[in-house]
UniProtKB/TrEMBL annotation:
The organism of origin for this protein: Anaeramoeba ignava (Anaerobic marine amoeba)
Keyword check for Aminoacyl-tRNA synthetase: yes
Residues in Aminoacyl-transfer RNA synthetases class-II family profile domain copies: 188-414
One Pfam family linked to the record: Seryl_tRNA_N
Name by which UniProt lists this protein: serine--tRNA ligase
Length: 431
């Protein structure tokens, strides 16, 4: 949620920034006037409510004083009795108007950074860097599914579909070991970079996913869980990224500046409801880089570059060709002010596919969740900045490794993964 103060009279010079950002996102500018009107109505109602509360406090003090002095206070009692229903109604009205204002604010995306390329579709994305040598596409190039089947039926969706329904899978033998090796390598990689390892819950309460989903349709992108969970009757959803529980991890906290940045290597099994572009499954493991930093000195921009640098180093160690892309304005998710995608080469597609990314959310989430910077009692609240980057979606990366390391007789194991699978350097085809 962006700062409501940007829409107010004393800051109207910022309206041009908001208008420009909304245009870049190809959204409707009329939302600005609706927010200004809703804010003015709420502030007026809030003032009226506070006046009634102040009057009630004054009358209560006056009654207390008259009691001590043994004076008559029946007139004040009558005034309070008349005032209380008005106060209750004013509180109700102010609450309704605040909810209306917040609902409108949730429809506005984060302010788009100036250096984000303008464009509605992915063809406007800007390629920042290309690394690695792309191998020649073979005449009978096999995709990862075909290659996995040659490794002792290492990937089986047919049996999984009978048991779990569409988009399930069995991963066995060397492909399974490869996925576990990739998990261990990824976590060690981030631990050496100073990240705290953290395994997140696989589900999240509805009231929290509502807060962080904004204008996005989470009910159609997440699996809903119903039932009584140890007397917890709240609705829940399965997560599609460790990022979701990490975003709310410090809700309603005041974070001490000396303890920042906080760097988390988040790990979880994920359950995306919508099918993915690479491996068409709805269950996989994912590892995130999640940072909480100071809102000052453009530190979040500096740390975004650090996340991208980590991503590049990770895939360079795996020796997988990739390109880094600066995502255009029309392709940004609502919370991101700027996003980089890291796309790796898939020989069977003959193109790059996204395996990692890094988004700068600034204070978009921390404002919603009241995660404050410092314990200052100053009137103006400061909120921490948040960043997130997917280091690796394990099963997708396994597919990419298998395609890039395939030979006529089997799969070469990347050097950095061999120590995690008993120094095995080659996985032969059995078919």
């Amino acid at each position: 949620m962006i700062d409501i103060n940007l829409f107010r009279k004393e800051n109207r010079r910022n309206l041009s920034i908001i208008k420009n950002s909304i245009k870049k996102r190809f959204e409707n500018e009329t939302i600005i006037d609706l927010i200004i009107e809703a804010d003015e109505n709420w502030r007026k109602s809030q003032f009226e409510m506070e006046q009634l509360i102040s009057t009630q406090k004054y009358l209560s003090l006056l009654i207390s004083s008259k009691k001590k002095n043994k004076e008559d206070f029946q007139d004040q009692i009558q005034e309070i009795n008349l005032l209380i229903p008005k106060k209750i109604e004013a509180e109700k009205k102010a609450k309704e108007l605040k909810e209306k204002l917040d609902n409108l604010l949730r429809k506005v995306g984060n302010i788009v950074d100036e250096d984000v390329p303008f464009g509605k579709y992915s063809d406007s994305n800007k390629i920042i860097k290309i690394w690695g040598e792309i191998p020649k596409i073979q005449e009978n190039q096999k995709n990862f599914s075909q290659l996995l089947l040659q490794i002792d039926n290492g990937f089986n969706q047919e049996k999984a579909n009978i048991i779990s329904g569409k988009s399930g899978y069995f991963l066995k033998g060397f492909p399974f070991l490869l996925s576990q090796a990739l998990i261990n390598f990824s976590l060690q990689f981030l631990m050496k970079k100073g990240y705290s390892l953290i395994q997140t819950p696989c589900f999240i309460k509805k009231k929290l996913i509502e807060k962080i989903s904004g204008n996005e349709d989470y009910e159609n992108s997440l699996y809903h869980i119903s039932g009584n969970f140890q007397d917890d009757l709240q609705e829940k959803f399965l997560i599609n990224s460790p990022e979701q529980p990490l975003i709310v991890y410090h809700q309603k906290e005041k974070l001490i500046p000396e303890n920042l940045p906080l760097k988390y290597a988040g790990f979880s099994t994920c359950f995306p409801k919508k099918e993915k572009e690479i491996l068409q499954v709805e269950q996989f493991e994912q590892i995130e880089q999640f940072l909480i930093v100071s809102p000052y000195s453009n530190l979040s921009e500096k740390f975004q570059q650090e996340i991208i640098s980590n991503l590049e180093e990770f895939y360079q160690l795996l020796k997988i060709p990739y390109q880094v892309v600066l995502v255009c304005s029309g392709q940004l998710d609502q919370a991101s002010s700027k996003r980089y995608d890291l796309e790796c080469w898939f020989p069977s597609f003959g193109q790059y596919k996204k395996l990692g990314y890094c988004s700068n959310y600034k204070d978009f989430y921390s404002r919603k969740l009241s995660i404050k910077f410092g314990k200052s009692k100053r009137k103006k609240k400061q909120y921490v900045h948040m960043l997130n980057g997917t280091l690796v979606a394990i099963q997708n990366c396994v597919c990419c490794i298998i395609e890039n390391y395939a030979t006529e007789k089997g799969i070469v194991v990347p050097e950095v993964l061999r120590s995690f699978i008993g120094e095995v350097s080659f996985i032969p085809f059995l078919k």
